[in-house]
Amino acid sequence: MYKIIDGKALSAEIRREIKEKVSAFKEKYKKEIGLAVVLVGDNQASQVYVRNKIRACEEVGIKSYAYYLPKETKQSELNELISGLAADKNINGILVQLPLPAGLDSESALKLIPREKDVDGFSAENIGQLCMNGESLVACTPNGVMQMFKHENIGLKGKRAVVVGRSNIVGRPMAMLLLNADATVTVCHSKTVDLKAECLKADILVAAIGKAKFITADMVKEGAVVIDVGMNRDENGKLCGDVDFENVKDKCSYITPVPGGVGPMTITMLMYNTLIAAERAV
Ligand code: GUN
Fold first, then answer.
1. Are 173 and 146 in contact, with CB atoms under 8 Å apart?
2. Is residue 258 part of a domain?
3. What is the pTM of this model?
């Protein structure tokens, strides 16, 4: 019998805790917590994400500063904005929504975000700290997955964890977090030889590939915990993950659905990182 990990419910619970802490912070220090959100261009998915991030700020009492820039924005203009936010004492966190429009270099822009305001956890310094199991702001999606393990009392020590996908945003930091939690970690990717054999070894399987229903039942060990980070459309245009949920679920001890699994946790962890950044700044 499998259990569905309800990311929506857990997310709501954590947001309530964050809201209380934000309120206590404001009361204690008589100041706001500020998150700057920068969106360049008119990518529709990005617009939805940014809208949800701003709504989450309102929900927990964080003050959001939204910057909507046209897709024709020059690199120098974007970089100037970020440098200004980096120096602004009212801003505790800076988030530049990715992807940037063609012609803009995200690396050059993201480099201007100081480590302590890097609430996405994307900077080389934060990633480096994570690799050394040091103090860092951790990328929101993998950190949300870790909260799910914690909440469900899923032990990781000595477990075989397989992460499918090696992106900087999810796969790599996810692997590091699992390693820091004493799991034995394998990272698989498009060049992996015999992906199925690797996945079948997993006690914990994290799918972060970006391909609809890619993980099928024959790739999953009986009793595995399956975490689906994917967000795709199936052949009928319906939202689905990287895991073939209907066929995989009966093999699992735990599984996350899409939607309503990892997705809601990401923005919640952004709120958490912004609170942490503010607390570290006082
Ligand atoms: N685009 C897709 N996911 C993310 C994210 O977590 N942060 C940012 N900044 N952009 C994204």
1. no
2. yes
3. 0.96
47 catalytic residue (yes or no): no
Same domain, 163 and 96: no
Per the domain annotation, does 73 fall within a domain?
yes
Question: Would 270 be classed as within a structural domain?
Answer: no
- How many whole angstroms separate alpha carbon 209 and alpha carbon 212? 9
Residue of 120, 228, 242, 244 marked active site: 120
Residue 208 Cα, ligand 1 centroid: separation in angstroms? 14
Which residues, judged by CB distance below 6 Å to any ligand atom, belong to the binding site of ligand 1?
95-98, 120, 140, 169, 266
Q: Locate 26 and state its tokens.
A: 């404001």
DSSP 8-state secondary structure symbol assigned to residue 100? P
Same structural domain, 110 and 170: no
What sign does the dihedral 49-51-57-60 (CA atoms) show? negative
CATH number for position 36: 3.40.50.10860
Atom 1 of ligand 1, residue of closest alpha carbon: 98
Say how many domains are in the chain: 2
> Cis link prior to 99 (omega < 30° from 0)?
yes
Q: Per residue in 214-252, pLDDT tens?
A: 999 999 999 999 999 999 999 999 999 999 999 999 999
Question: How close is the Cα of 8 to the center of ligand 1, in Å?
Answer: 19
Q: Among 6, 21, 97, 249, which one carries the catalytic annotation?
A: 97
Q: Best of 94, 97, 100 to mutate for ligand 1, by most ligand atoms within 8 A of CB?
A: 97
Q: The domain that contains 236 carries what CATH number? A: 3.40.50.720
Q: Is residue 201 annotated as part of the catalytic site, yes or no?
A: no
pLDDT digits (tens, 9 = 90+) for 162-184: 999 999 999 999 999 999 999 99
How many residues in total does the chain contain? 282
97 is catalytic: yes
DSSP letter assigned to residue 215: B
DSSP 65: E
CB within 8 A of 165, min separation 6: which ones?
171, 188, 189, 206, 207, 208, 209, 210, 229
